[in-house]
Amino acid sequence: MSIEYKLIEEKWRQKWDEAKVYEVEPNEKPAMLVTAAIPYLDMPLHIGHLRTYSTADALARYKRMRGFNVLFPMGFHATGTPVLAIAKRIKNNDVQLINILRNIHHIPDDDIKKMADPYYEVDYFIKVIRQGFIDTLYSIDWRREFVSIEPIFSKMIEWQFGLLKEKGYLVTGRHPVGWCTNENNPVGQHDTKGDTHVKIDELIGIKFKDTSSDAYFVCVTYRPETIYGVTNIFINKDVKYVLAKLNDNSNISNIYLTKEAFENLKYQLNIELIKEIDASELLSKEAINPITNETVPVIPGFFVKADTGSGIVMSVPSHAPFDYVALKRLENEGYKLPSFKYIKILEIEKSEEGKGIGRSIQDQKNVATNEDIPALTYLEIMGIDEKSSEDALELATKAVYSEEAHYGIIIIGEYKGKREPEVRELLKKDLLMSNKAISIYSIMNDGPVYCRCGTKVIIKVVDDQWFINYGDKKWKSKTKEVFNNTVKLYPEKYRHTYNSLLDWIDLRAAERSQGLGTKFPLNPNHVIESLSDSTIYPMLYTFIHILRAENVAPESLKPEFFNYVVYEKGDIEEVAKTSSMNLSTIKKCRESFDYWYKNTSRHSGSDLLANHLLMYLYNHVAIFPEAYMPKQIVANGLVYLEGVKMSKSLGNVDPVSDGIKKYHADPLRMVETTIADIDSNLEVKLDEVISGIYLRNEFLYNLINDLYKFNGKELTHIDYWLYSRLNSKIKAATEYMEKMNFKNAYSEIYFNSFNELNIYLERNGRNSIVIRDYIEAITLMIAPVMPSFAEELWQMLGHSSFVVKEKWPSFDESMINEKIDEAENIIIHTIDDINSIITLTSKIDANKNKKPSSIKIIIADDWKLKAYNKLIEVKNINEVVKELGLEGEKAKFLAQFMPKIKSLIKMHEIESAYMQSAFISAQDYLKSKFNVDIIIEMESTSKSARAQRALPNKPSIEVIWQ
RNA sequence: GCAGGGAUGGCGGAGCUUGGUCAAACGCGCUAGGUUCAGGGCCUAGUGUCUUAGGACUUCGAGAGUUCGAAUCUCUCUCCCUGCACCA
Hints:
Helix content is about 40%, strand content about 15%. It is α/β, with parallel strands linked by helices. The structure holds one RNA strand.
């Protein structure tokens, strides 16, 4: 009979709704607040997203069964730019986007059109996503729903930022951002064409003084340490240069750079154009190396790009392949060069095999002729010369750069003897401190990045930007302390990562010029950045439904109100007056917050580890009193389908609505929460796994229907075995659940159970009471993951209560019988052994065309196991012989274990009589399995020649052929 | 570059926290046999190498070490993945 999931889901969802099972208020039970990162409203969710929510829901349901009063609420996130970006793309008739919405998410064209209005978009997606959560049977208390752009939410954020300011955590500063000069806005990843991430790197521009004027050549480089090897300066002879006035921290100087560079850098430097200059004019000049004070000429370089850095580079032919080749080419063209001295600035540390330069280069083409010029050495061994392409040179440059950074030891100058990366930093600092260089930011992407409007993105340094200063020392150490002392982290193995992230996080933008959200109090033209405004909102769940029920106007929610709710600060009557609210409302809010917020579990995908979860923790430490610190954080891995990551942009998604139709809520929940470890990416062939779950569910369902066919006679060996398995299963599963290890928990609870039930039935287990006890416990334990199916089974088992409100089963330690389990293991091993013996002996000529007629299983005498264990203990045959009073033959038996005695371990003590009864109970089963007579004998009474071969816990087997 | 993580049989992926019962769960694939089985169904056995009785040998990225004993602990090396900020 196949199961009508859709009907079952619908039926129980309605019954739960009617009984308001998930609408909870403070009571005498211990509280637990389970929250998951609220979904972002720029797209409907796909089934991959459900993993986080399903895990949170399963925990919520489990904890309810463990006696907690659990609140699982949900809200929606709309602040920031993505919602706007979608609206804008729809407005611009973005075909790609519209196709996704239409074809994948089945949104009617009419609605798509209306989504050009971001608020329509928000409402629409809330509707879709909420329905998805309902269909997935989450135990959400919907009375507490909110969206992050509604006024009540904003009031909370304003209060939060007031506190952050008060505590001095808000600071202004300089910061480089990707910038669109057309729209005059910062560009984030989804503002760029192809959602390119703008990679920004800090470079250094070293100032070489022009000998013939007071101006400087600004040479931009990654490797200031190569300054010792500079032979000349390269410029591009085909582009326009300018002279500009630079005001660098009121240190005024004139600099040369390309016109294009000027246009870019005016957004990050304080510079003014003085005049344009021809490249040819610069080519007649010389400049002074600020470190070595040597005078070097200005020379044309073919590779110098006008729009990169300043359009001027310093030439280090000894270590830079491009520089070396440029000089070589000039020479070949007949350009008259001075005789440069190529100075080697570092030595490559030798590898164990004694290899120096080129040690990390895999397939070396040639042998180097000259190791005094490293750039040349690399070119030679890589088979590259001045005629090679720029790509080849780029490759060589990378090879040099990485090897020298890895193994380079500086052999010149002030920092002689130190490693290259260290010297780079030291020199950078020196040069900047002494005004011999300026810092310049550059886009590190391969090729230019474009804004969606088509303009090339440049770097702007904003200097009135507000940041949240997560670098604050006290705040940082307090946060780490809370994290390490009070927060349970799942998976625990992220703790190390997390600690280093807590250290790493520093300034973080608090506001931005665009996007939906709460106005930034310190600059009302800006809104609060949307990661910063989603850190403490779980508090809102605890009382927002009270505010709504009492029709409290958002304007009433003054800081005094929040201060009272969170700190119980101030006089409640005063607070009621200032916020024009009922005293009782405020009191209720306070009580509710205090009740729920002491025990929280926070859930999100592991991709939010480095941002949301960090800020969640920091902000909790900043805002809340000790008692309300986070207690638990759960980060789950992502979902892959058929080996491909589910991603909105890839379009390989099943929207939630489709997924539920196709797979049904309960089986899908089962897969998402229990197939993979919580920390690993879930990588499944959904159809395959789901059909496995269908089969198992049907097995359970049918077994309950067939319960009447069984009887309730006296308990036999196999009944005790099933009870033993059940109780140890409950014990193990409960331990796993407590550790948030759903995977292992459910392979015990669910997947292993079918094997056990099958063994039980095959072994002629027929006790309806035993089966019922077993299935009831399974039903209870699958309820957190497959709630409606469990509910259906629970009803079939004759209960009238909701299974989701039942207690998690407890186990009876006395029913766990290791001996019986061990005996079963021995039987299973014996079956394996019989199989391999039959396989092997069937090849014997004498057995050709024959079949086994019977199999003898001969159980070892008790003394063998005793002696064996004793031998392991004392490791001395004589002692065992003496102590147990064994004769010659028996001592000989023990001798076989001596060669490996040190590596053998003790065995479980099972008496031969017990073993015999176990085998007798399995006799029919073995008989039908091998389709032959099974004879069970004891070693002492057996006449078989193989009898004495019986080993402790390993019966001797004799296969008798016809 | 900085930080974090990883490397296991044809594949995916357990086990490694607490070293032994690990030739290594589970699933997929593959092979053989069965099934009144018509087309990705079910059952049984096999699937590192060798083996005429349940055994032996070699394996868990490479190398070295600790130990009676290592996939599991230590060290070195190689390779791979992820994140790096104003962006949800």
